[in-house]
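From the methods appendix. Each design record in this collection lists the tokenized structure first, followed by the designed amino acid sequence. Records were kept in a plain field format so they could be parsed without special tools. The example shown here is representative of the layout used throughout.

RECORD:
FOLD TOKENS (193 positions):
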């Protein structure tokens, strides 16, 4: 869907046209929810934030400017801001220094015979333990498949900063998941590239 068409749908939805809202919601809801879920690690909270995101779009349609980017990227930026606001409101500390080494998750070596679900849980736990800015860069790049420039636009920083955050996130994940990887090698699991 092109930006101009999305802009018209946003305006029509803001004027109360249910079908326009339905099209926008069905087009973008899954991606917005996935991002909210990955940033918060909480399914229920992600659902609430997704609803809040779309209600904000309809209440304040003028905030979306199709000349600045796609609606999907605007919604990603909105989810990012809603997640941060929710954390601040709950007095959850949001470290601005995304280079801190503290709070690496403890992942124990996997025992022989583990299934893919155990590995998946370990990876999800390690991603959830990343500092917010690193997690955000990793999720948008690896899972949402956005370019460095697109992530920079959503995050309000330059592409070099995003690249740096992404690099630090990968280093932390490698370090956090090393016991898991070593346990798989010891069990004779094939090494993945």
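DESIGN:
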């Amino acid at each position: 869907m092109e930006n101009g068409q999305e802009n018209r749908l946003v305006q029509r939805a803001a004027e109360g046209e249910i079908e326009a809202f339905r099209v926008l919601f069905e087009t973008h809801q899954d991606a917005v929810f996935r991002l909210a879920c990955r940033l918060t690690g909480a399914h229920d909270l992600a659902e609430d934030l997704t609803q809040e995101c779309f209600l904000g779009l309809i209440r304040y349609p003028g905030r979306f400017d199709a000349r600045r980017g796609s609606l999907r990227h605007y919604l990603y930026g909105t989810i990012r801001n809603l997640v941060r606001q929710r954390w601040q409101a709950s007095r959850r500390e949001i470290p601005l220094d995304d280079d801190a080494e503290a709070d690496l998750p403890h992942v124990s070596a996997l025992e022989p015979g583990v299934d893919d679900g155990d590995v998946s849980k370990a990876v999800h736990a390690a991603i959830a333990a990343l500092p917010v800015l690193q997690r955000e860069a990793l999720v948008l790049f690896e899972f949402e498949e956005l370019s460095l420039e697109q992530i920079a636009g959503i995050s309000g920083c330059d592409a070099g900063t995003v690249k740096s955050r992404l690099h630090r996130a990968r280093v932390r994940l490698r370090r956090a998941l090393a016991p898991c990887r070593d346990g798989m090698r010891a069990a004779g699991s094939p090494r993945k590239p």
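APPENDIX NOTE: Residues 159-186 form the longest helix (28 residues).
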